[in-house]
Amino acid sequence: MVVNSMRLDKFISKATELSRKESKKIMHAGEIMVNEQVVKDPGLHVDIVNDEVMWGGEPLSVAAGNRYILLHKPEGFECTLKAKEYPIVTELISVPELGSLRIAGRLDVDTTGALLISDDGGWLHRVTSPKHEHAKTYELTLADAMDSDAQGNAVKEVAEGILLEGDHEETKPAVLEFIDATHARLTLEQGKYHQVKRMMGYFGNRVTELHRASIGHINLEGLEKGDSRFLTPEEVAKF
């Protein structure tokens, strides 16, 4: 059951990333209004769904329950919790408490496509665990053209499983489809480190562009790069 009641000082802290001490300070200064009334009592419990909390004329909010988000990741963003060389993907999402969100199946900085983000750890595990068999489909561009014989050999070997350099077990059977000599679609149920790029490297080729088109039953229809949306309850339940 979702509990919607929360102490006001805790609410302010979670909504603003201020400390509880700092939250109490702005309350004592008369800067916080609850339902159009100035409130200085940090112990007051507010309904995080129905009560209106304002600071400096701006509304504050925190999440009620778990969030399940689909993001169309563009190039140039890292799937990490703290920025290193590039901005992080959560900067593209406008929701409170970004720090509690985690990513299911990271994408490289130069890779685009479907990214599922949530604060529900059990759900994220079900999305990424190979035993749950949620297929992921990638669209890729290759550096070197492959003739029909090379394509046929690659399709056959991928369907049977291949042993990647540094691994001790073959990849799980996957489906490789060639669109033309330099473009292909790969559907797999695993998430090994740099798996798609390494699989193409196995055949002496290099991936120059990579896009994750779908995760399980979820695709990017209607989402431009950088856009996101919440999953429906029906979509969440299918994982």
**CATH level 3 topology of the largest domain:** Alpha-Beta Plaits
Number of domains: 3
Shape: elongated
CA-based gyration radius: 23 Å
Alpha-carbon distance between the two ends: 20 Å
Strand content: 25-35%
CATH top level of the largest domain is: Alpha Beta
How confident overall, as mean pLDDT? 91
Q: Structural class per helix/strand content? A: alpha+beta
Quaternary state of this entry equals single chain
Walk me through the structure:
- The chain has 239 residues and is of the alpha+beta class.
- It has three domains: 5-60, Structural Genomics Hypothetical 15.5 Kd Protein In mrcA-pckA Intergenic Region, Chain A; 68-131 and 217-238, Alpha-Beta Plaits, CATH 3.30.70.580; 136-215, Alpha-Beta Plaits.
- The chain is 22% helix and 27% strand.
- The chain has helices at 8-16, 20-28, 121-128, 148-160, 195-202, 233-237, and strands spanning 5-7, 32-34, 37-38, 45-47, 53-55, 58-60, 68-73, 102-104, 112-118, 136-142, 175-178, 183-188, 207-215, 218-219, 228-230.
- The strands form three sheets. Strands 7, 8, 9, 10, 11, 12, 13, 14 and 15 form a nine-stranded mixed sheet that branches.
- A hairpin with a 7-residue loop joins strand 8 and strand 9 (112-118).
- It starts with a strand and ends with a helix.
- The model has no long low-confidence stretch (mean pLDDT 91).
- Responsible for synthesis of pseudouridine from uracil-516 in 16S ribosomal RNA.
